[in-house]
Amino acid sequence: KIRGYAIISKGDSPEHIGHGVYRLPSQSSDAKYLVAHHNPDHWSCSCKDYETRKIKCKHIHACIFWLTLKKRIDTKEEISVPETREELKCSCGSDKIVKFA
Q1: Is 32 in a helix, a strand, or coil?
Q2: Are the C-beta atoms of residues 21 and 37 closer than 8 Å to each other?
Q3: Strand, helix or coil at 24?
Q4: How many CA atoms lie within 13 A of 100 on its CB side?
Q5: Beta bridge pairs of residue 97
Q6: Backbone phi, psi, residue 49, to 5°
Q7: Could you give the 3-state DSSP secondary structure of residue 10?
Q8: Which residues, listed in sequence order, are joined to residue 67 by a DSSP beta bridge?
Q9: What is the pLDDT of residue 93?
Q10: Whole-number Å distance between alpha carbons of 34 and 46
Q11: Closest CA to 49 of 66, 27, 64, 65
């Protein structure tokens, strides 16, 4: 799972290429792997790790993590940012905001 998070955290995003099919770059070469999401409990990947062990590899975990984050981002409302200092308030209700350097 950690290696899957590392793929996403370095900026690589799965490329959606079809119904439930994603393409992810290899971390160590120019290769790209196909990850397929057949149903919520069944995933597959074209990498050697998955083909040998038949368990969720880092590419599958990266897709799961990315899809989870994408869903959370897509369903959240926009956050408004205060335009002026007068609009800023602490969660305690105080308007005395001090910037820490």
Answers
A1: strand
A2: yes
A3: strand
A4: 0
A5: none
A6: -60, -50
A7: coil
A8: none
A9: 72
A10: 5
A11: 27
Q: Where are the beta strands (DSSP E) in 41-98?
A: 42-45
Residue 99 corresponds to which tokens in the numbers above? 């910037």
pLDDT tens sequence across 46-88: 999 999 998 999 999 999 999 888 887 777 755 556 566 556 6
Q: What's the helix, strand, coil split of the chain in %, to 5?
A: 35, 20, 45
CA distances from 98 to 40, 86, 94, 101 (A): 47, 13, 11, 10
Does the reported pTM lie above 0.70? no
Q: Which residues lie closer than 8 Å to 28 by C-beta, 6 or more apart?
A: none
Task: Give the 3-state secondary structure of 35-54.
Answer: EEEEECCEEEECCHHHHHHC
Measured at the CA of 59, the angle between CA 74 and CA 40, to 5 degrees, comes to 60
First to last CA, the chain: 35
* pLDDT tops 60 at residue 32: yes
